[in-house]
Amino acid sequence: MALSNEQKKAYRSIGHNLNPVVTVAGNGLTEGVMEELNRALDDHELIKVKVAVGDREVKHAVIAELVKLTGAELVQQIGKVALLLRKNPKANPKLSNLQRP
Known about the structure:
Layout: H1 5-15, E1 20-24, H2 31-44, E2 46-51, H3 56-70, E3 73-78, E4 81-85
Parallel strand pairs: 1-2
Antiparallel strand pairs: 2-4, 3-4
């Protein structure tokens, strides 16, 4: 599900005001982090994740692994924060960052 530049721009504008809902720190991708990440993607569809581990290469590797394990799409990465998208057709409109006005 490759995103076009127009779609990425629209998602970035929505994500601009979001705060990170999941933080990956020194322990890496633990089972608890993955559960919380999947729950957040199911509920909100578009989320920010803070990756506070190691240097640039380690951050890129962790984000690539997050994308692979969750089936999400990487919309944008700036520094330690990644914006991830995984559409959920059954998302609660009150929780979804995509369906909220």
